[in-house]
Amino acid sequence: MKNTILSAAIALLFGFIGAGIWSYSGLADARTKTYLLDNPEILPEMAEAFQANETRARLADVSDEVMGAFPGAIMGNPNGSKVLVEFSDYNCGFCQKSQADVAKLVADDPELKVVMRELPIFDGSEPAARMALAAAKQGKYAQFHEKMFTMLPANADSARAAAKASGLDMAQAEADAASPEVDLELVRTRSLAQQLGFAGTPSWVTKNNAFEGAVGFDELKKAIASAES
Predict the structure, then answer these.
(1) Total Cβ atoms within 10 A of residue 85
(2) Residue 32: CB partners within 8 Å, gap ≥ 6?
(3) Is the whole-model pTM more than 0.85?
(4) How is residue 7 annotated by DSSP?
(5) Architecture of domain 74-228
């Protein structure tokens, strides 16, 4: 019975991940199956290694583009030698939770540049994303970003209120928010998220890794350090 259940688990796992994992591991015969049945604890490790390998391959194709910030959409040091990219949505509770982690990372490391990519996937988020990019063009992205998270839920009205509270030139901000430049940036960010396999926000990119979720300050710091080693 145990072997039957494990056989089903293996079939399901490799069915989802794909035959490529066999090439990655170099394992493909009956002895391998027997070994895996006897040592099922290595399956998550194999899957994780395969997925990491796939992520690196996807990142290699878009690394330069994903790290190229929309003008002004940056937290921290615009010329920093260390780069972290965040895909974010103002109506995402986990993005709100991660805001403090990013702020602490920036405060602790003067060499950190956080490239912000607006990925509005929840209802009502797009007006806030557009206004954030408009704020970036006025050099006030950080102010708007912080203020927006205090005025949730994000929608057209709260985005305008956050913009006013951030001291934006509102006529210019409204024009920029509706501009083809901002249209293109939102399309570009959605495309990059799809290419990287991101299913939600927050999602993160460093020079050598891409991952999802509110992973916390320590994991983000570790990822940044790993990219520099």
Answers:
(1) 23
(2) none
(3) no
(4) H
(5) 3-Layer(aba) Sandwich (3.40)
Beta strands in the chain, from DSSP E residues, in sequence order: 74-76, 82-88, 112-118, 203-205, 210-212
* Calpha distance 202→97 (Å, rounded): 10
In this prediction, residue 56 has a pLDDT band, given cuts at 50, 70 and 90, of: low
Contact 87, 62 (CB under 8 A): no
CA dihedral 96, 186, 62, 82 (to 10 degrees): -40
What token pair was written down for 174?
């409204």
Q: Which two tokens stand for residue 50?
A: 């395969």
Q: How far is CA 77 from CA 140, 157, 217, in A?
A: 14, 30, 18
Percent of the chain with pLDDT over 90: 67
Q: What is the pLDDT of residues 60-93, one digit of tens each?
A: 667 788 999 999 999 999 999 999 999 999 999 9
Residue 22 has pLDDT above 80, yes or no: no
List the chain domain ranges. 2-40, 74-228
Q: Of 79, 97, 68, whose CA–CA distance to 192 is shortest?
A: 68
Strand, coil or helix: 146: helix
One-letter identity of residue 159 = A
For the stretch 124-160, pLDDT in tens is 999 999 999 999 999 999 999 999 999 999 999 999 9
Which secondary-structure segment (H or E) carries 225? helix 217-228
Whole-number average pLDDT of the chain: 85
- Scored b (16 or more CB within 10 A) or e, 169-204 reads eeeebbebbeeeebeebbeebbebbeebebebbbbb
